[in-house]
Amino acid sequence: MTSAIVMAAGKGTRMHSRHGKTMHKLLDRPIIEHICDTLEKLNVENRVMVIGFDGDSIRNHLKDRCDYAVQDPQQGTAHAAMQAVQLKGQKGRTLIINGDCPLITENTYRRLLEKGNEYPLVVLTTVLDDPASYGRIIRNAEGEVEAIVEKKDCNEEQLKIREINAGIYCVDNELLWKYLPEVNNDNAQKEYYITDLVEIFRRHGHKVSALIGDSEELQGINSHAELASAAKWLQRKINRGWMDRGVALVDPDSIWIGPQVEIGQDTVIYPNVRLEGKTVIGCDNVIEEGSVFINATIGNNNSINCCRITDSQVEDDNKIGPNAHLRNGCHIGNNCRIGNYVEMKNTFFGDGSKCAHLTYVGDATVGKKCNFGCGVVTVNYDGKHKFHTTIGDNCFIGSNVNIIAPVTVGDNSVLAAGSTITKDVLEGEMAIGRVRQENKPEYGLRYLKK
Ligand code: UD1
Ligand code: CA
Q1: Confidence at residue 450, expressed as pLDDT on a 0 to 100 scale
Q2: In a 3-state reduction of DSSP, which class is residue 380?
Q3: What is the rounded CA–CA span in Å between residue 178 and residue 296?
Q4: What is the value of pTM for the model shown?
Q5: Known catalytic residue at 61
Q6: What is the dotted CATH code of the domain comprising 2-212?
Q7: Looking at the DSSP assignment, which residues form a beta bridge with residue 237?
Q8: Residues lining ligand 1, judged by CB closer than 6 Å?
Q9: In this predicted model, what pLDDT tens digit does every residue of 207-263 receive, in sequence order?
Q10: ω before 73 within 30° of 0 (cis)?
C-alpha cells in the first residue's frame, strides 16, 4: 500500500495573497493540482491533503480526488503530518510532500519509492550554490544522513552545507506513526519539524538514506517571483517535449501549453498562443497568434487564427477566424468556414457550412453546406429560457436575419436578408419577414438642404 501526505495548510506569507499558496495557478492549474495529478499517475492509493489556511478552496477544487485532514492551528510540518490520522495503522510506504513543490516528476517519485523499499526513511535532497533558507543535510564520515538542521537552528559550519532538504520524504508508514509523537518543538521557531524524524529514526537504530535530485525540479514556490520562474521552467520543458515530437513552435517562449494538452505532428503554433486543460490537437494545423484553447478538441489540417475555443470540438480542414469564439459544447464538422467576429455557443455546425462574418449562433443545429450571411443572430434567450434553432442542409441564411427560437428550418430553404423569422420554414421554401420599403421622391434632397 502506498500513501501520501501533502502538507498544504500553511498561509504562504510570502505570496502576500488572500488566497492559500497552493491554490495559485502554475500554468493552467493550481500548484496543489499538479501534485494531485502526479500522485494519481503514480497510483498512490491513499492521498491525504493536510489543509488549513484557505482549506475550503483546496477541498472545493480537488473534491473527492483525495482525502482531507484539517490542521488548525498550524504548528509545523510534523504537526501537519500528524493530522493525517486516516493513515494510522496502514502498512507500506508513505510519501510526505511539501505542498509547494509541484515540479517533481513521476520518475523522481518512483526512484524515491524504490529507495524506500530498502530504507525506512529516505529524504529527497539537492545541492545548491546558494542553500538560502533551506534545511541543511548533515552527513557523517561514512556519508550517512544523520540529521536535517533548519537554517534558523544552524551553527556557522552547518550554514555552509550546500546539500539541502527538498521537503519530500518516503517513510515506512508504521514507523512514521510510531515515532511522530517523539518530535518536539524545542527549536528556534517553536514548531514541530518533520525533519526531526531523521535523528529520531537513527536514535532507534534505523538507517536513513537520501536521494539527490535535480535542483530545478525540486524548487519550492514561496513567492510570486518563484511561481513565475517555476512556470517558466515548466513551460520550457513542456514546449521542448512537443518540439521533439514534431510540433513547430514559432516562438516557444511566448507559447503556454498545459501539462495535459496533446498536439499532433506538423502542427504549427505561432506566438502568444495559450493551450489549457484537456485540449487535444491533431496534425497539420496552423494556429495563429492570440489563440486560446481550453478543453478544445481539434482534428487535422485546420487553420485557426486568433480564436478562443473552449469546451468545444472542431473536426478537419476548417478555416476559422480571425477572432472567432466557439464555446460551451460547439461541434464544428469538416470543411467549414467560420469568419471574423463570429460567436458560436452549444452549436453543431455541419460539414461544408459557412458563416463568415459578425454572427451569433447559439443553441443551434446547422446541417451541411449552409451559408450564413453577415450579422445573423439566433435569438435563443427570452430572458428566462433558452431555445433551440434547427436548420437543415443546404440552406441560405441571408444577412442580418434574426431567428427567434425555437424555429426549425427545413433543407434547401432560403431566409431572405433582413428577415425576422418567428415561424418554422418548410423544406424548399423561402421565408421573408421584413417591413416593406417605401420611397418618397425628393424627400432626401429636401432633408439634406435643411
Ligand atoms: C521546509 C523544511 C526544510 C526544507 C524546505 C523545503 C521543515 C521544518 N523544514 O521548510 O527543511 O528545506 O521545507 O522547501 O519541514 N505546512 C503545513 N503546516 C504547518 C507548516 C507547514 O501544512 O504547520 C506546509 C506548508 O503549507 C508548505 C509546507 O508545509 O506547503 C512547507 O512549509 P514551509 O513553511 O514552506 O517550510 P519551509 O520553511 O520552507
Ligand atoms: Ca517552503
Answers
A1: 87
A2: coil
A3: 49
A4: 0.94
A5: no
A6: 3.90.550.10
A7: none
A8: 7-10, 50, 71, 74-77, 79-80, 98-100, 134-135, 148, 150, 164-167, 193-195, 220
A9: 999 999 999 999 999 999 999 999 999 999 999 999 999 999 999 999 999 999 999
A10: yes
Length of the chain: 450
Dihedral in degrees, nearest 10, Cα atoms 430, 436, 442, 443? -130
Which candidate in 61, 357, 385, 388 is catalytic?
A: 357
Domain 224-431 fold = UDP N-Acetylglucosamine Acyltransferase; domain 1 (2.160.10)
Amino acid at 92: G
436 pLDDT more than 90: yes
**HEC string for 42-81:** CCCCEEEEEEECEHHHHHHHHHHHCEEEECCCCCCHHHHH
Span from the CA of 262 to the centroid of ligand 1 (angstroms): 34
**How much distance in Å is there from the Cα of 166 to the middle of ligand 2?**
9
Residue bearing the CA closest to ligand 1, atom 8? 193
Using pLDDT thresholds of 50, 70 and 90, give the confidence band for residue 309. very high
Exposed / middle / buried, residue 239 (Cβ in 10 Å: 0-12, 13-18, 19+): buried
Q: Of 337, 393, 340, 341, nearest to 365 (Cα)?
A: 393
User: In testing the pocket of ligand 1, which one of 72, 77, 145 has its CB within 8 Å of the most ligand atoms?
Assistant: 77
Q: Distance from the CA of 219 to the center of ligand 1, in angstroms? A: 13
